[in-house]
From TrEMBL:
<keyword id="KW-0378">Hydrolase</keyword>
<keyword id="KW-0645">Protease</keyword>
<dbReference type="GO" id="GO:0008270">
    <property type="term" value="F:zinc ion binding"/>
</dbReference>
<keyword id="KW-0482">Metalloprotease</keyword>
<feature type="signal peptide">
    <location>
        <begin position="1"/>
        <end position="17"/>
    </location>
</feature>
<dbReference type="GO" id="GO:0005615">
    <property type="term" value="C:extracellular space"/>
</dbReference>
<dbReference type="InterPro" id="IPR000834">
    <property type="entry name" value="Peptidase_M14"/>
</dbReference>
<keyword id="KW-0479">Metal-binding</keyword>
<feature type="active site" description="Proton donor/acceptor">
    <location>
        <position position="379"/>
    </location>
</feature>
<feature type="domain" description="Peptidase M14">
    <location>
        <begin position="119"/>
        <end position="413"/>
    </location>
</feature>
<keyword id="KW-0732">Signal</keyword>
<keyword id="KW-0121">Carboxypeptidase</keyword>
<keyword id="KW-1015">Disulfide bond</keyword>
<dbReference type="GO" id="GO:0004181">
    <property type="term" value="F:metallocarboxypeptidase activity"/>
</dbReference>
<dbReference type="InterPro" id="IPR003146">
    <property type="entry name" value="M14A_act_pep"/>
</dbReference>
<comment type="similarity">
    <text>Belongs to the peptidase M14 family.</text>
</comment>
<protein>
    <recommendedName>
        <fullName>Zinc carboxypeptidase A 1</fullName>
    </recommendedName>
</protein>
Length: 418
């Protein structure tokens, strides 16, 4: 009874907090079947609508969140180009409330125990976990790789056997986009698996003996914190744009086709690329880590949600990279290992053709500027059933299958680049 009282008390507190209210907001799905419809959606995306999945190719579903007051207006616009729609979520506000209740209930049931890898955590909790791990595990050191506009440190864990300063490096970053909570949950799970199973699990032991694993569990701390305190669906960072709108998309801010297709010059857009490449602390922090380990980085992986995709460069153009055959081979092996875990189906290929054009992305930069052959972007579960509000009960299977895919990737890299 005491636990239930605590749960309902915290739910009431959350309900009274000053947060963006998404009651009655819908997510609709449209499928462009003509070039006119696709072009229309691409132009619509420039007008600060919240696209949960972006227009890419004919026949590819596009999800758009819309408020009750603008719903009919949007429907009329879609009708003008004969675009029909289906309603994926009739009330996003209720879905967010359900997510909050699930988080709080699990916290109450897990109170007083060790860090819970089957729940979502605030940024201060994640920082504390990484720092504690650095003090309790001889494999881990923590560092702050950058400081955000609001003054938060971007924390990174280095997981290493310490056997050589010239070992290969594998770099993983999560939550470049703030609302994608399943991504940092997956990174935290990976950290726990690597540190608790080294020396007992032959596969993990071999992979850590081969390479140092550098993991940034939350690449966009300001935006991530904002999703907890104010707006669950915030995507960008929180830097001011000189007008009424805030935030730059850090994953459009790298010097790789900067300002090209799939990035916006509109400061109110969710894909705003910023005034110049590497203007954001978030993109600059990742750049600095890669450059500091120049010549050692053999893999750079950016983890996102949602859509169930494993992708290689390029995002800025449909032209395939020179090393695409090898990239594609390793993607296929990785996806097969992921799918073998629970049967989850992933598509894989280059970003531009698999999901959409997205200029200024991190993995285009790591491949083109720094020569990191195995540069990949992942979109984890699901394909739209829950979207960004993946229930806590699905964290463990999502993280487990993803890590299995990444281990398969790492084994292929170790065999190719011993």
């Amino acid at each position: 009874m005491k636990v239930l009282f605590l749960v309902f008390a915290i739910v009431a507190t959350l309900a009274n907090a000053t947060k963006v209210d998404y009651t009655g907001h819908k997510v609709i799905r449209v499928v462009p079947k003509t070039e006119v419809q696709l072009s229309f959606l691409l132009k619509l995306q420039e007008q600060a609508y919240d696209f949960w999945s972006s227009p890419s190719t004919l026949g590819a579903p596009v999800d758009i969140r819309i408020s009750p007051s603008r719903y009919q207006f949007l429907v009329n616009l879609l009708n003008s180009v004969s675009l029909s729609h289906t309603i994926r979520f009739s009330d996003i506000g209720k879905q967010i409330e359900d997510e909050e209740r699930a988080i709080i209930l699990r916290r109450a049931m897990h109170s007083g125990r060790a860090f819970d890898f089957e729940n979502y955590h605030t940024y201060p909790e994640i920082e504390a976990y990484v720092n504690e791990l650095a003090t309790t595990s001889s494999l881990v050191s923590s560092s702050v790789i950058g400081t955000t506009y609001e003054g938060r440190g971007i924390i990174m864990a280095t997981i290493s056997t310490g056997s050589s300063a010239t070992k290969p490096v594998m770099y993983f970053e999560c939550a470049m986009h703030a609302r994608e909570w399943a991504a940092p949950a997956t990174c935290l799970f990976m950290m726990n698996e690597l540190t608790t199973k080294y020396g007992t699990d032959a596969e993990i032991t071999a992979l850590l003996d081969y390479a140092d694993w550098l993991i940034t569990p939350v690449s966009n701390p300001d935006g991530y914190d904002y999703t907890w305190t104010t707006d669950r669906l915030w995507r960008k960072n929180r830097s001011p744009n000189g007008g009424l709108c805030y935030g730059t998309d850090p994953n459009r801010n790298f010097d790789a086709g900067f300002g090209g297709p799939g990035a916006s010059a509109n400061g109110c857009s969710d894909t705003f690329h910023g005034p110049y490449a590497f203007s954001t602390e978030e993109a600059s922090a990742m750049r600095d880590v890669i450059i500091a380990n120049k010549g050692r980085v053999v893999a750079a992986v950016s983890i996102h949600t949602y859509s169930q995709l494993w992708m290689s460069p390029y995002g800025s153009q449909s032209t395939l990279p020179a090393d695409y055959t090898e990239m594609y081979r390793v993607m296929g092996i990785s996806v097969n290992a992921l799918t073998a875990t629970y049967g989850t189906v992933f598509q894989y290929g280059n970003i531009a053709d698999t999901i959409y054009l997205a200029s200024g992305g991190s993995i285009d930069w790591t491949y083109d500027a720094e020569g990191v052959l195995y540069s990949y972007a992942l979109e984890l579960r699901d394909t739209g059933l829950y979207g960004f509000e993946l229930p806590p009960r699905l964290i463990l299977p999502t993280a487990t299958e993803t890590f299995n895919g990444l281990k398969a990737m790492a084994k292929e890299i170790a065999a190719k680049l011993p």
